[in-house]
UniProtKB/TrEMBL annotation:
Keywords: Cell membrane, G-protein coupled receptor, Membrane, Receptor, Transducer, Transmembrane, Transmembrane helix. This is G-protein coupled receptors family 1 profile domain-containing protein. InterPro entries: GPCR_Rhodpsn, GPCR_Rhodpsn_7TM. Pfam families: 7tm_1 (PF00001). The chain crosses the membrane at residues 27-56, 68-88, 108-128, 149-168, 180-201, 230-249. PROSITE patterns: G_PROTEIN_RECEP_F1_1, G_PROTEIN_RECEP_F1_2. The lineage of its organism: Eukaryota, Metazoa, Cnidaria, Anthozoa, Hexacorallia. Belongs to the G-protein coupled receptor 1 family. SUPFAM superfamilies: Family A G protein-coupled receptor-like. One of its GO terms (cellular component) is plasma membrane. It comes from the Eukaryota.
Amino acid sequence: MEGNHSEHENSCFYHGDPSFHKAHEQFTINLITAIINIVTVPVGVIANILIVTAIFGCPRLRTPSNPLIASLALSDLFVSLTVQPGYITYRLLENQLRLVPCFVRIMYHLAFFSCFGVSFMTLGAVSYERFVAVRLQVRYNDFFSSTRVVKYVLIIWTLNILLTALKWTSIESAVENIHLMVWSVCFLVSVATQIGVLYVVRIQREQVQPQLQGAENRQRQREAKLAKNISILVGVYLILNFPVLFTLICDQLLRLNLQTNNHYSWTETLAFLNSCTNSLICYWKNVEVRQKVKNILKKLVCQ
């Protein structure tokens, strides 16, 4: 995203034309961040394809929480396929021509808001699902099942695509503010529920409940372990995404004057790293997913 839009030019549909008169000051940062994205794109594409294929290709992995993880991986895959190439093109053209064509800006803008909207909403859903699993274990099936979770995922994707499509209209500025407010709410929900999850897990570990049967105890331990693993995934995602969310809120929502667009270059690149880290954390912490990925790679190598 770029701040400092020209007020008198609005030739790129309803998106203001950014000013490139300070592009020479960003040359080095643009080049460094473009190179970082060029290196991480192949990793993100390959890793997320493997995660999505492993989860949807194995019936045993279709638990209520895994479709949400797969949705997050699918969003990260689209970040690697669309958002990062758009960023690379944007920054290199800005360096070379001091101008970025309308088509490139529009595609980058729409891909960014669609993918990140899905990611923030999915993170909120993942966090809430784990909170219900550890806090309301008996009533878990009233809220979540594999079929219901797939419906939730479809709603999240549809809602974000429709909301992003409105950015082509004259209410583009209002839609962008709605995006940022929804992201902020999802961010706060994720933080609050993860704190709740870790608190409940700690309390349950400290409590001695000899009346529980062995199978029930093992189930509780599995839920606690999964909750902690997902907390790591969500925590890393939120840490890497908070800077770009904060920058967007300051620039677009609060209209604070950012002296340089280097803030965007670094914070967006940091957020894009999630397309790699999420899949690697999932591979590291989820034994079943890791085993399925290994099987997929063995089949590909042996063909």
